[in-house]
């Protein structure tokens, strides 16, 4: 890399050298044409020079310390098999500003049984780790609680992480089947107006759930498990009259359910089941607006009830392209 140093900032200037082992992994860490290092320079206001296994970081003392911590954490992620991209870099930078950063990402505090493993979800295709502090809390809740409401804007990983946890539990045999549901049509579920058989009618509305499944399991396994009934993807209308035992049940886009639909869905809960309700309380498409949403009604009724967890995501938890977070913030700012 040969670039001009970033403009000087106020504060004591500092220079630190970091040496990395496993040189074969450094191209993944640095990025093509050192693009990841360039991003760190831009985000953190430092100058980074790489030569072989050594990296020199220059800037204010605080910025240099921050950059070194982020770079070392990214290196540990590469060792664990993760791909370093812009989203991961932004997530690690954000998490490094939190006082619990070391405890969350590297390892849990040691207890009587010794150090606990880092928070992660293992599926057949990948290992998933949190990209925000709220995601860390959410992943803990997914691993320990039976009924969870995941509330917040698009792009925060609510549904994706729930599907990943469901797949992980199916693989290990903790549950016997996955049931993934959402309102099939934004308001009213008027399936008869759509062409094709029932599967063709509902598949377009359930595509985000399919995408998450294919990201966690090989395609042939998804198809085989759907054919055998281990994985069931259906509109919420199909849940009526059933008891869902030994299952991991996910309801997506829950803000578009009515209070009666939500009550019906929640009361399907059976023995040895897990249930996750995902939605954005501010984005309901029902004619009556947020006041008509079964999600908002359920949150108001069930907040504080023992055994029910509420996890709330914010704009800072958006893990898609950074512009998505800015778009969400702009819309939330005017109350839309």
Description of the structure:
The protein has 336 residues and is of the alpha/beta class. It folds into 2 domains: 93 residues, 2-Layer Sandwich (Ribosomal Protein S8, Chain: A, domain 1), CATH 3.30.1370.10; 219 residues, Rossmann fold, CATH 3.40.50.300. 40% of the residues lie in helices and 18% in strands. The strands form 4 sheets. The chain has a 6-stranded parallel sheet, sandwiched between helices. A 3-stranded antiparallel sheet has the order 1-3-2. Strand 2 and strand 3 form a beta hairpin. Helix 2 packs parallel to helix 4. The chain is elongated, with a radius of gyration of 22 Å. About 7% of the residues have low confidence.
In short:
With 336 residues, the chain is α/β, with parallel strands linked by helices.
What attributes characterize this protein structure?
336 residues; 12 helices; three-stranded antiparallel β-sheet; single chain; six-stranded parallel β-sheet; Rossmann fold; alpha/beta; Ribosomal Protein S8, Chain: A, domain 1
Tally of alpha and pi helices: 12
In the CATH hierarchy, the third-tier topology of the largest domain is known as Rossmann fold
Please indicate the percent range of residues in DSSP E strands (runs of 2 or more).
15-25%
Order of the strands making up the biggest sheet: 10-9-11-12-8-13
